[in-house]
């Protein structure tokens, strides 16, 4: 089987690593340069979308901000999974919100803004405080504003108007501010036959809008809610592949924040913590193979390595620690790799995370240090 991935970043790379034992070969299509590249070495293998499509048995995507003309060409080939509609829902908050409403899953109240008058209507409809998000192109908390008081309106409108003017189809989605106690996400797979396999929920910590620490958790009540919403969204889309749902946990009730129609950063823990990792299950789904078990095999956390191209070698010696580098050039804040850390007996994961806080730089890994500090203060 030959799978073409739209996008040539770390997710295509990890799909390639997971596909090899199943004889699934991955090539990556870099949408910007229009080249076909090897997902591990970035060696150029060819040029042009038509050429890439002709060589592939299946086409999938590792990101959602894909020009719609490219999606249309891929869909026309009959090889594209999950679907152009699913990718568009992940890339445009207007479509995403309509999808969530259609699927009947709880999400934050919202209003779409295109003009200054709309902004007033949004304040009336949604209320203050509110979170304002660009409909297109947002990721890692970029393209967002927080409106807390009415005297901020003109300054925020000036910035939003500039954002709207930049792209023809741009708009702003105003959302009620959700007073959540924590953020969790669900990664799961749906097969061609409609079978669904979901992983345990992950609890996510963000630092400056970027995921920094993600831990698989066991919570029967929350998991049940999340599973139902996952199935509702996946069935509405007739989805095939791995899909992620991000939630706000408001005192035990989940609201969907957003969806990602692809393998997800909060599912990287599955490489060491689950029977079958999310990358393998995505490939199994899109290739029409049976899904693998999503069972938790050991407690696991994932720590993102942001803007750093090295960590102390001692991490490699530490119990339960596994480093995954993405082979990328160092840039401030860039996702460079992650560390999966596991525990085999009760309390071991916590112990290993605290041991990591002793060797990882506090500025680069604030979430790990905060975790260790909270453990200390509980003792
Ligand atoms: P990514 O794609 O990296 O997950 P993003 O840029 O698409 O992020 P969101 O996930 O929508 O953006 O928002 C980023 C963060 O901002 C959320 O993880 C959450 O912490 C906060 N946030 C977003 N929407 C709201 C809301 N309505 N109320 C309160 N906080 C919010
Ligand atoms: Mg998000």
TrEMBL record:
Its EC number is 6.3.4.18. It comes from the Bacteria. GO terms for biological process: 'de novo' IMP biosynthetic process. Pathway: Purine metabolism; IMP biosynthesis via de novo pathway; 5-amino-1-(5-phospho-D-ribosyl)imidazole-4-carboxylate from 5-amino-1-(5-phospho-D-ribosyl)imidazole (N5-CAIR route): step 1/2. The keyword Repeat does not apply. It holds the Pfam family PurK_C. InterPro entries: ATP-grasp, ATP-grasp_carboxylate-amine, ATP_grasp_subdomain_1, PreATP-grasp_dom_sf, PurK, PurK_C, PurT/PurK_preATP-grasp, Rudment_hybrid_motif. The keyword Transmembrane helix does not apply. Residues 97-287 form the ATP-grasp domain. GO terms for molecular function: 5-(carboxyamino)imidazole ribonucleotide synthase activity; ATP binding; metal ion binding; phosphoribosylaminoimidazole carboxylase activity. It catalyses: 5-amino-1-(5-phospho-beta-D-ribosyl)imidazole + hydrogencarbonate + ATP = 5-carboxyamino-1-(5-phospho-D-ribosyl)imidazole + ADP + phosphate + 2 H(+). Keywords: ATP-binding, Ligase, Nucleotide-binding, Purine biosynthesis. Homodimer. Belongs to the PurK/PurT family. Catalyzes the ATP-dependent conversion of 5-aminoimidazole ribonucleotide (AIR) and HCO(3)(-) to N5-carboxyaminoimidazole ribonucleotide (N5-CAIR). Catalyzes the ATP-dependent conversion of 5-aminoimidazole ribonucleotide (AIR) and HCO(3)- to N5-carboxyaminoimidazole ribonucleotide (N5-CAIR). This is N5-carboxyaminoimidazole ribonucleotide synthase. It comes from Vibrio hepatarius. The gene is purK.
